[in-house]
Specification:
3-stranded mixed β-sheet; 7-stranded mixed β-sheet
Length: 603
């Protein structure tokens, strides 16, 4: 009996020891296996993930249907959800970053750059494995990562499609509701009329800030359904479809008339703003004029005036009453020239702006170049006959009747001692050296200009749009299909001009245009007629048009052009100027100048 109890105690003690030691042994062995599994998992995370994806594909799961969008539709309809991107990044680590890197590398033609960087980071972490093993494993991992990323791109391309069907339907329902409301008898205050007014008010508030269906709140969708119920009631009260169609046509016509009126008003306001002088520019003119008259006659003289008639130098002319425009033309021409000491710039303005422009260049001389400033009154015999002729032009636009605009046809009289000259409009910017123009072979022609006769381009002009080819006088002398050209930057051979007596021909055409309608107002059609068959076409890189009226001019062509022309009403010194082209003009103005600061003139 004692032996039995002793063995019983030994058996119980052994069981007790086993229950105590077994968990300790199990934990110690399991911890080693867990650590090894974690280390393997650490370096095989991508491949395990790839295997899981491949197994899911092998089980017959179908991927999302890929949709191809146009570029315009993609910008307005497709957007990735931020929350889904965050979930994807948590689930797949840095796959989103690799996607973006792979997309940018695809644009450059190399897709492997971001993948190699990811594998390199993995190799840096694995320091306990020999180098040869790391290299082979990273190569295998690179292939698996590429497959993972391609698959992830397919899974993430278009995640969600945003539409505006409900928004458009609500707007259409609003139009129907307003049509039903207008069909109600005047002064009607029935329950349906009150309900229509209420639904219209609610729906307008709900849809006012919505551009796509996802912008609509739950209450907005409820209001949409309420409006549809009210419209159903109204359709039973007003069952006459012909009356509804007639009302909708009237509403459409009224809307089109309002749009047309708004467009006309916008066009008029743009034209008006293009003819007005900015307040800051008027302030600058007043300050410069006051400073000019405070000087003595000797201090008003510009230097190097003995060089203005030297025919061996490069002569450039601009006719303008805008001091800032003249400053940009002069500064850009001098800064772009390889030999600025050979440049002579001639500015002709009216008597009102002569003190302003003279004072500006006394304060801001053009470096090594020479500048001459003249007034229209300096050409006494020319201005008396000339102004009387311009007053006969049937135009209220000062741009067409301005003496400075038509002075270009009297260049041999304005510069009698010169043989060649380049004439700028005041809305140009020079970007490159123009010395090559002076060695250009004019082939006996009078004017050099870029053509504007290529259809489909913004600068395209046709002669029959500006000249009246129904007149027998015009038909005998000109061809409606002749190539047109542009003012703005033109090279003139004044010797050939004098030989052909083209100024007298211009005066003849100007008088004929007054007696009968031969051409539109302005100097361009008269220029085409005066220099007809006497024009040499320049390479288009010399002169880039359209920066004052066409926002679609490519920046590549702008960068390559020697001269930029802001033709049109949206001048760069106005608030309505096209923003992306303003920097080419404004960089030639020192906005830190005290006078510009005082007159609040800034970029």
């Amino acid at each position: 009996m004692k032996k039995f109890r002793r063995w019983q105690r030994i058996f119980l003690l052994s069981l007790l020891c086993l229950t105590v030691l077994a968990p300790i042994l199990f934990v110690s062995v399991g911890r080693k296996e867990l650590i090894s599994d974690l280390s393997n998992l650490r370096y095989r995370r991508d491949s395990v993930q790839l295997n899981a994806i491949e197994q899911e594909e092998g089980e017959g799961l179908k991927g999302p249907k890929l949709v191809v969008y146009d570029e315009k539709e993609l910008g307005s309809r497709l957007r990735y959800s931020t929350s889904e991107e965050n979930n994807d990044s948590k689930k797949y680590g840095n796959i989103g970053e690799i996607d973006r890197g792979s997309k940018s590398s695809q644009k450059g033609g190399n897709m492997s750059i971001p993948l190699e960087r990811t594998n390199h980071e993995s190799r840096e972490e694995n320091r306990q494995i020999p180098q040869e093993t790391v290299t082979s494993r990273s190569e295998a991992k690179g292939q698996s990562n590429q497959t993972t990323i391609r698959h992830d791109q397919n899974m993430r391309s278009p995640v969600r499609i945003f539409t505006d069907e409900k928004v458009m339907q609500m707007k259409d329902d609003l139009i129907r509701a307003k049509a039903y409301l207008s069909m109600a008898p005047p002064g009607s205050n029935s329950h349906l009329v009150k309900e229509l007014r209420l639904r219209i008010k609610e729906s307008e508030r709900a849809v006012s800030a919505a551009n796509k269906d996802s912008d609509l709140s739950r209450s907005a969708l409820q209001k949409k359904r309420s409006l549809e119920v009210t419209l159903s009631k109204a359709s039973r009260v007003f069952p006459d479809c012909s009356a509804m169609a007639l009302k909708l046509r009237a509403m459409t016509y009224n809307a089109e008339e309002q749009v047309r009126a708004q467009k006309n008003q916008a066009t008029y306001l743009v034209q008006l703003s293009g003819r007005t002088t900015p307040k800051g520019l008027h302030c600058l003119s007043m300050r410069l004029t006051a400073e000019y008259f405070a000087l003595s006659p000797e201090e008003r003289q510009l230097p190097n005036q003995q060089r203005v008639h030297d025919a061996d130098l490069y002569h450039y002319a601009v006719f303008s009453d805008n001091v800032l425009a003249c400053a940009v033309v002069v500064n850009s021409t001098v800064s772009s020239a390889m030999e600025p000491e050979k440049i002579v710039l001639h500015i002709v303005t009216d008597s009102l702006n002569l003190p302003t422009i003279s004072m500006w260049f006394l304060l801001n001389p053009p470096g090594k170049a020479t500048i001459q400033i003249q007034s229209l009154v300096d050409f006494k015999g020319l201005s008396a006959n000339y102004n009387s002729t311009l007053k006969q032009l049937n135009s209220h636009d000062s741009r067409y009747t301005s003496a400075l605009n038509h002075l270009r046809f009297y260049l041999p009289d304005v510069f009698p001692q010169l043989n060649k000259i380049v004439l700028f409009d005041h809305d140009v910017v020079v970007q490159k050296d123009l010395a090559g123009l002076w060695s250009l072979n004019m082939k006996g022609k009078v004017i050099g200009a870029v053509d504007t006769c290529r259809e489909g381009e913004p600068s395209f002009r046709r002669m029959d749009k500006f000249i009246n080819f129904s007149d027998p006088f015009v038909i005998k002398r000109f061809d409606a299909k002749a190539c047109t050209w542009a003012f703005g930057m033109n090279l003139f051979d004044l010797q050939e001009w004098r030989r052909h007596k083209l100024t007298a021909l211009y005066n003849k055409y100007l008088q004929l245009g007054h007696t009968r309608q031969l051409w539109k107002a302005g100097s361009l059609p008269l220029g085409w007629a005066t220099f007809y068959n006497r024009t040499v076409i320049l390479d288009r890189r010399w002169h880039k048009l359209g920066l004052g009226h066409e926002a679609g001019v490519g920046l590549d062509g702008v960068e390559r052009a020697a001269v930029l022309h802001y033709d049109g009403v949206m001048k760069p010194w106005l608030d309505i100027g096209i923003g992306k082209y303003k920097s080419y003009w404004s960089k030639h103005i020192n906005y830190d100048h005290p006078y510009l600061q005082q007159c609040n003139i800034h970029e």
